[in-house]
């Protein structure tokens, strides 16, 4: 989930020009808190990288790629629905908010 914040050309301190908003900072703190627990990762999905559709290629193909774009988006929606049925997505990587709140771990700042 955080690979998009990574840059192998330089270190990011997540402040200044590399700063993140309060929501992202809260997410990162929750991820760090999970890593500091002994809880197993129980979600089935561990790869969050994928194609979200064909975007601008659909009109550039004069609509010929629309069926493929529609299929890709439907497949992603089904996968997201299955993922959401596993636990509380807002608490990820914890399975639910109760696990997060029960962890007595102070997240890294």
How does the SSE layout of this entry go?
Blueprint: H1 22-35, H2 57-60, H3 66-86, H4 97-102
Structure, described:
The two termini are 18 Å apart. The chain is mainly alpha-helical. The protein is built from 4 helices and no strands. The model has no long low-confidence stretch (mean pLDDT 84). The chain is 41% helix and 0% strand.
What descriptors fit this protein?
109 residues, 4 helices, mainly alpha
Low-confidence segments, given as residue ranges, are none
Rounded radius of gyration (Å): 18 Å
For the biggest sheet, the summary is: none
Task: Report the average pLDDT across residues.
Answer: 84
* Dominant shape: flat
Which class of secondary structure composition applies to the elements?
A: mainly alpha
Count of helix runs = 4
User: Strand fraction band?
Assistant: under 5%
> Total strand count, please?
0
| Order of H and E elements | HHHH
| Euclidean distance between termini CA atoms | 18 Å
Oligomer: single chain
Helix fraction, binned, reads 40-55%
């Amino acid at each position: 989930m955080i690979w998009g914040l990574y840059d192998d050309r330089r270190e990011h301190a997540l402040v200044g020009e590399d700063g993140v908003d309060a929501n992202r900072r809260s997410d990162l703190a929750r991820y760090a808190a999970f890593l500091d627990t002994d809880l197993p990762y129980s979600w089935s999905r561990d790869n969050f990288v994928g194609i979200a559709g064909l975007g601008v290629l659909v009109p550039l193909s004069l609509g010929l790629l629309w069926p493929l774009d529609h299929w890709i988006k439907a497949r992603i929606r089904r996968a997201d629905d299955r993922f959401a049925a596993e636990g509380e997505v807002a608490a990820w990587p914890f399975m639910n908010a109760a696990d997060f709140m029960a962890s007595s771990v102070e997240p890294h700042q």
